[in-house]
Structures are given as C-alpha cells and as structure tokens.
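Hey team,

Sharing the J domain-containing protein run so nobody has to redo it. Sequence (299 residues) first:
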Amino acid sequence: MADTFRGFRNLRSAAASLLKKLKNRRFPWLGPLAGGLIGLFGGAAGVIIGIILGYLIRELFGQFKSDRDLLEYLVNPGQSNFSEPDPGMAAYCALGVIIIAKSLQARDRRYIADGSETALKPVQISAAESFPNGGDHAPELEAFCRLAASKADMLNADLLAESLAARRLPFRDQAYLGQQLEMLAFGPGIETGYYIRTLLDPDYSGGGTHENASREIHTEADPWLILGLDPGTPRHEVKSTFRKLAVQFHPDSLQELDKKHQEDAARAFITIKEAYRQIMSQRDSGKQPDPVYQQSSRR
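Structure output:
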C-alpha cells in the first residue's frame, strides 16, 4: 500500500516538473503559426465574400442591361436582346398599357406613369390568360407592364402591333390577341382598343368609331354591347370576358382613383354584373341559345 502511494506521488511530481518546464520554455514558432491560421481563415472568408459580391453585382448589371434592352425595344420595336417567356409578350403588355392610358381620364394618367399596380393589373391578368406560359411568369409580366408604363408617352401602337404580329406569326393567334387587347378598353380608350385590334386582325370589322363607341358603360345599353361581345359568343367566352371586366372595374381594384371615378367605376361594375346576369338568363331560358350547345345537339 505504501508503495502504491509512493508511486502516485512520484507521478504527480513528474507531471508538475514537466508542466513547469513547458511553462518556462519559449515557442518562437507559435506566433507565426497563429497568424498564419488567422490569415488562412480570413482569406477563405474573403474569397467566399468576394464570390457572393461578384454574383450579386453580375445579377444587378444583368438586370440593368435587360431592362435597358427592353426599354429600347418598347420605344423602337425591332430586333430584341431580352428574353420573354412567350414571343410577343412584352409588345402585348405595352399595347395594353397604351389602351389603359387612353381609357383613363387625363388627370388619372399619372397612375400609369407611376407604374401603379392597380392601373396595370388588368393588363397583367389579360397577358397571363392570353399566353400559354403567362400564368407561370407573373414577375416578368409585372416588369413588362411597369417598364412600358414608364415610357407610356413614347410607345407607338403601330410599331408594337406590327412586332407582336410578326412574333406570333408561327402561332397564328394574332386575331385572338387583338380581341383580348380590345377587351381592356373602356371610355375614351374604346376607339384605341378597336384600332389596335384591327392592326392585329385586318379582317376584323366589328364596329368602328361610331358603332364601337356604344361599348361605353351605361344602363340602357344592350348587355352584349356592354361586355363587348357578339350575341353568338359561346358561354365560356362570356364568362371569361365577364371575369376580366369585373376585375378591371371592381371597386377594390380602383382605390387609388379619386372619389368621383371610384363612384363611376362602382356604377360600371354594377352595370357589368347586370349585363352578365341578363345574358346568362337569356341563355338559360333558351331565348338566346348557346351556339356550342346548338352544334352539339345537331350532331
């Protein structure tokens, strides 16, 4: 037992002696080693931060260049250096901005120049529904409309319509897109909407200045004229048109307008709903049969 305790004391003395020697010994390499390790870690962090900053700068410059190329195209349509989810989508949005800007009263056009989301929302919705990939690219549509609105006074409807028609030539849907654009028009913009539609569909002769002007919203108008449709329009197209007009004139979508124009929009919204109710009632009663159902029943 005494030998065991003696062994422990000797071990403890040896350990204390070793620690004392290490404590009193100098390590000239310790400082450079610590500095090197700190520099190594600092350098690695610097490299990572540099890569991240470089990526962000590249993205910012890339976005700036894309916006610049898009603005150049919108002002002077021709060969483009920007990408769009579907060919002609930027031109479509620009034409929609022209129609909305014309439809709004002069003192309300500031909402277009300011890129108001409320004023441009109908154009974005129309584009999303009119192009195959529109619904999956809301940010791009928002950018197209916003940039077009910033140059609203410099947009040329003839050149944009020509460019849109050329880009959609392989798809042969220019007439359909013209119809969708015309649906955005109201009030003072009806004539502009009609004109743009004729640019995209030269064979269209659905009204003109005097006849098409009857599309202005008023309670005594024919319900088909209120919705801007022909009496033979299929039910699904009637519903689609009603939804677009309802969104366009819904009071919640026009809260940025002054009180007078909000009241006008509210009356127009009620008129649109009443016109839709009358058309659906005619269809349901058989007074105005749905052409789609008529064709299917004859087969």
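The chain has 14 helices and no strands.

Ping me if you want the raw files.
A.
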